[in-house]
Specification:
Distance between the termini: 55 Å
Largest sheet: 7 strands, parallel
Strand order of the largest sheet: 8-7-6-11-9-12-10
Shape: elongated
CATH superfamily of the largest domain: SPOUT methyltransferase, trefoil knot domain
Helix content: 25-40%
Structural class: alpha/beta
Number of helices: 11
Length: about 290
């Protein structure tokens, strides 16, 4: 390696002493969706989200931190191995102003958004993808991302005018699962149609399953071992007519008690659990027969 090359590879250290342009930029990414989208960067804080972003190879463009209190060995290790372009060192009171945590975060990362490209979602024989149309609540969106990760979905597609996938509330609500599960944003269901042709060509028949409290088919009665795209609708309006027409079957979740419906994040988690349970049972039967 040529002399000085290692120095050029190190992040640039920039010290911030006031609410200058660099501080304002980070603060704007935290609160302003339009600026996040324009710059294709977003705000990440928390040990687990940052660890998962690094583990899954996301591009971190900057870290922000304060040395007015000792950093943990975890934070020092992240900074030591950082491939970010810049490190911003701030006074603790400015870190506290940026942080959304009760106890000010040691590190805040500014991460690059990946492209909204359906090729990020693997097309597999056991395909399981969730489509969430027009989610309004960041909390619901974050929870569904987390459930997709926990229960084996290969990706989540968000369509229509929706809560921002890259808002701090969604990133936090996903507990970092956003970095482990491909999430792709599309303007509408129309952009799904060419991708469905790709799936058909790659693996053959698959089913598009929509959820509706008024459906005739019970979730537990449906064969979910087939390649499946699960579609859930807006919290208030449910599935649009366009999605209803796109679905091969509509299913309901049987309920007791006085409740007539479930929160969309709860309902999606139950559906994903049923898919996982059916597929685990099938896998178990195969293992037993081989034994």
């Amino acid at each position: 390696m040529a002399a000085g090359a290692s120095d050029r590879m190190r992040p640039q250290l920039i010290r911030i002493h006031s609410e200058d342009n660099d501080f304002q930029y980070a603060e704007t990414l935290r609160r302003n969706r339009t600026k996040r989208q324009k710059r294709r960067e977003f705000f990440v804080e928390g040990v687990r989200p940052i660890n998962l972003a690094l583990e899954h190879g996301w591009e971190i463009r900057a870290f922000l931190f304060s040395r007015e209190r000792p950093l943990s060995s975890w934070a020092e290790g992240v900074l030591r191995q950082s491939a970010a372009k810049a490190h911003y060192e701030l006074p603790l009171h400015l870190m506290a102003k940026l942080s959304g945590k009760e106890e000010t975060s040691e590190l805040i990362a500014l991460a690059a958004m990946p492209p909204d490209d359906l090729s990020r979602i693997p097309v597999r024989e056991d395909l399981l993808v969730v489509v969430f149309d027009r989610p309004a609540s960041p909390g619901n969106l974050g929870t569904i991302i987390r459930s997709c990760d926990a229960l084996g979905a290969h990706g989540l597609i968000v369509t229509g005018h929706a809560a921002d996938v890259y808002s701090p509330e969604v990133v936090s609500g996903s507990t970092g699962s956003l970095f482990a599960t491909p999430v792709v944003r599309l303007p509408s269901h129309q952009e799904l149609l060419p991708w469905f042709d790709v799936i058909q060509t790659a693996i053959g028949d698959f089913q598009v399953v929509g959820s509706s409290a008024r459906a005739d088919t019970d979730l537990s009665a449906l064969n979910l071992m087939r390649p499946t795209v699960l579609v859930v609708g807006n919290e208030t309006r449910g599935l649009s007519e366009a999605y209803r027409e796109l679905c091969d079957v509509l299913i309901r979740i049987s309920m007791g008690g006085a409740a007539t419906s479930l929160n969309v994040a709860c309902a999606t988690s139950i559906m994903l659990y049923e898919v996982d349970a059916q597929r685990r049972e099938k896998s178990g039967r195969r293992r037993a027969s081989r034994g």
